[in-house]
Amino acid sequence: MSLLQCLPVATALILLLQTLSLVSSTVLSRADRITRLPGQPRVGFQQYSGYVTVDEKQQRALFYYLAEAETKPISKPLVLWLNGGPGCSSLGVGAFSENGPFRPKGSVLVKNQHSWNQEANMLYLETPVGVGFSYATESSSYEGVNDKITAKDNLVFLQKWFLKFPQYLNRSLFITGESYAGHYVPQLAQLMIQYNKKHNLFNLKGIAIGNPVMEFSTDFNSRAEYFWSHGLISDPTYKMFTSYCNYSRYVSEYYRGTVSSMCTKVMSQVSIETSRFVDKYDVTLDVCIPSVLSQSKRVNPQPQQMGEAVDVCVEDETVNYLNRRDVQKALHARLVGTRKWSVCSNVLDYEVLDVEVPTINIVGRLVKAGVPVLVYSGDQDSVIPLTGSRTLVKRLADELGLRTTVPYRVWFAGQQVGGWTQVYGNILAFATVRGAAHEVPFSQPARALVLFKAFLGGRPLPEEF
Ligand SMILES: *[C@@H]1O[C@H](CO)[C@@H](O)[C@H](O)[C@H]1NC(C)=O
Ligand SMILES: *[C@@H]1O[C@H](CO)[C@@H](O)[C@H](O)[C@H]1NC(C)=O
After folding, report:
1. Cα separation of 168 and 349, whole Å?
2. Which of 54, 170, 306, 322 has its CA 20 to 30 A from that of 419?
């Protein structure tokens, strides 16, 4: 392993592919196998976690957690899941609050009945360095991290991860994620396709992104109408929020440290009317009373769309669980340069203006390259509302000349409507998830699982029950 790690990745991979038959597929990953997570119920699948060094010289390492499929893992695809932020943890948010096999409850873990590892081998990556258990030994590595660096590191991570898990090398691979992962997922997929031109390594079968940031202005400015149509702001405030200062202008000014008095005035009125006691990630959600204080800290002064929030009660349980020494030991996790695991990084200094870089054009390139894309939206989210995503997908379909192959219609989960969907050219799909928050698998786990299963199978969502 150490020899392989010293070589440039591409060379190492070729070497590996040539000698694959000599490598016992379990040897390299054995050290990362999780015997048992503290408090977990008995399960029939394997779990692995640990580090992949993405830069030997600068000592930067990314932490992953793999929950293999509950049944027949060998015949199921590999799915990478990424949370956004930027700077929030796919382990804490994705695995332990959304679609992983367990949820922390007090001192134990309870089984998630709608875990995505029923359908796939789920790989959760804490990225970039400085997030969760991922680290760099030089704190300067946390400065100026941007989309480019993150995408490159994620690519190197996957290349090297396959050295540990050669049994997954040619497996169908899907990349999924939500929120700011609307940047990470397409950007990584694009690098994989470029890499594949020289070394056919990634068997990329599709991407799915939930409530994703794909185009700054369209995504952020759909907030005003969402607030207004859901009764969160008054008519005059809606007018101000769409004329004097729209939300993209506010965020743009905010990140440049130049908030105009007009925007200050408009945003202050918007904040008063929407109230800090309504969860902007699910406008129908009750706030968790004991955690109201921590939630209001989130709301101010940082504009709330930047931090990836989950239900604060769940978050508290996850924070407690992942900060236990015995849990960290079982996960082979280390805290480097920080004393506490946190949901969203306190050390990472991300290039916030990258939020303005569009990724919808990259999504278009992926579709052109034949990669199926699903954009889905929890319809109770006001942070990245469904209307912005729907507009962007429609516009892209028009640009690519894709005709509607599934007309806008309801889809079913069980006997109830799970949401609405439309598919273009049998390759670009949009779906809403009814009653779901920004974190779809957390708030509508059963519907999310139906959506996930159809996506993996390349099928349209169920038309009837
Ligand atoms: C990789 O998978 C494809 C199907 O996705 C299959 O056709 C091909 O033979 C596989 N290659 C190897 C080396 O297993
Ligand atoms: C938002 O405001 C900016 C700056 O005033 C403007 O250029 C842009 O067209 C506005 N967008 C929308 C959707 O109103």
Report:
1. 33
2. 306
Calpha distance 142→140 (Å, rounded): 5
Give the catalytic positions in this structure: 179, 381, 438
Q: Give the global pTM.
A: 0.90
| Residue nearest to ligand 1 atom 13, measured at CA | 170
Distances from the Cα of 417 to the Cα of 40, 377, 410, angstroms: 33, 14, 6
Segment 209-245, tens digit of pLDDT: 999 999 999 999 999 999 999 999 999 999 999 999 9
Tell me which residue has its CA closest to atom 3 in ligand 1: 170
The residue length of the chain stands at 465
SS3 252: helix
Residue with token string 């029939």? 44
Report the amino acid identity of residue 94.
Answer: G
Check the CA dihedral 197-201-207-213 and report its sign.
Answer: negative
Q: Is 203 in the pocket of ligand 1 (CB under 6 A)?
A: yes
Measured CA angle at 343 (ends 285, 451), to 5 deg? 55
The C-alpha atoms of residue 20 and residue 162 are separated, in whole angstroms, by 11
Q: Which domains does the chain have, with CATH numbers?
A: 26-210 (3.40.50.1820), 221-308 (no CATH), 365-457 (3.40.50.11320)
Cα(170) to centroid(ligand 1), Å: 6
Q: Please give the Cα distance from 207 to 182 (Å, whole number).
A: 10
Ligand nearest, relative to CA of residue 172 = 1
C-beta of 170 in contact with ligand 1 (< 6 A) = yes
Say which range, 46-55, 272-281, 445-454, has the weakest mean pLDDT: 272-281
Name residues contacting ligand 2 (CB within 6 A).
217, 221, 246, 248-249
Q: Is the peptide bond before 186 cis (omega within 30 degrees of 0)?
A: no
pLDDT at 301 over 50: no
CA of 63 from ligand 1 middle (Å) equals 28
Closest C-alpha residue for ligand 1 atom 7: 170
Strand partners, 176: 81, 208
CA distance 46 to 25: 15
What secondary structure, in 3-state letters, does 59-121 show? CEEEEEEEECCCCCHHHCCEEEEECCCCCECHHHHHHHHHHCCEEEECCEEEECCCCHHHCCE
